[in-house]
């Protein structure tokens, strides 16, 4: 219910003080305290009595006139009937409600009879036309009579709400959009309103024209990124490769930026790293530009990186066991602590320009080419195949990584100067064809094919 007083109780204290007090308490419990007005309980101390009463009358929806046996005949100090005086507050309250067509319920106590019109002064004569109710009272209210009164009050309150909503709809429908100003001050105020509207439009239009398309692009781009992350787990290798290419292009781990309208502020939220991603075995990333990709601690077992650009990629702590790096660019890549067990490094670039790969449909730009070195520190090279690969400039390659029971197989691979004196670059050329044939039967259908491949790699000359 609204905070304004919806129910106004009018009474004479000398006539029905105790009755009205009990009635107020009963209605307040049912309709909530803030909905019922009675002067003694509601008017705050120090308030202007006249103004407060008039304000409450103006907003009430139902008027209850409590009439006891002495209501009409109480005499004032001048010896005249108080009801006959125009300034009598009980009379003024009832007349105000009747004038404004507020529903008025004459509430008679016990056997009190309703006054006839000729016995009432002025506008009060209309009170006799209203349907009255009786409430029995003997130190307490008769509950049956009170419930009947409450049902009548609820009926009038519902009708008042319907009338009010109907009035609001009529005002909205029939009121003119612009009214002629009555004063110069009002005209100036409207002129200022128009000025504010124009300023608002001047700000809004450029926003809609320039920024809204970018915001829309931002939302679409974000949706695409999320979809591509889902596609990384797809079974279709073509879909997986396209999604990976999209993510590495738009979410470069080291550049702190992405294409489109996203900024570095949103990169961590919308461009999650590929680090620690569990890729399915034999994932195919061949012929893909993965420069600067973040594959830290990722699972990439037996992945195919043939003819892939992994320049400056971060593969530290990644599980690359059994992966293929044939014709792969690993210049500047970080492979520290990576598991390179049984990988193939054939014609793999670890330091030099591979512009010849432009023939494959890719153009690489190495602006920091001569400042980058591949890091193989602490990488596990057990049983790896290093074929026709230049290791001279690889950072932190040790003698222990290349020798021992689990040492990699070397063939036509140049070694760092501190190791080349003790380890031959062609140490394992005769063993590699058989290993390739057994480990990669899908690539080498026969031992002869594997031998032919190794022979071609051995023909490569070094400057």
Give a structural overview:
The protein is of the alpha/beta class and 463 residues long. The protein folds into 2 domains: 7-174, 3-Layer(aba) Sandwich (Rossmann fold), CATH 3.40.50; 273-458, no CATH class. Helices cover 37% and strands 7% of the residues. The strands form 2 sheets. The protein has a 5-stranded parallel sheet with strand order 2-1-3-4-5, with helices on both faces. Strands 6-7-8-9 form a 4-stranded parallel sheet, covered by helices on one side. Strand 3, helix 4 and strand 4 form a beta-alpha-beta unit. It is rod-shaped, with a radius of gyration of 47 Å. The relative contact order is 0.05. Residues 167-185, 252-272 and 352-372 have low confidence and may be disordered.
SSE blueprint and pairings:
Blueprint: E1 7-10, H1 13-31, E2 36-37, H2 39-42, H3 49-59, E3 62-67, H4 89-99, E4 104-109, E5 133-135, H5 143-174, H6 184-231, H7 237-250, H8 264-270, E6 324-326, E7 344-346, E8 385-387, E9 409-411, H9 417-420, H10 432-439, H11 447-458
Helix pairs in contact: 6-7, 10-11
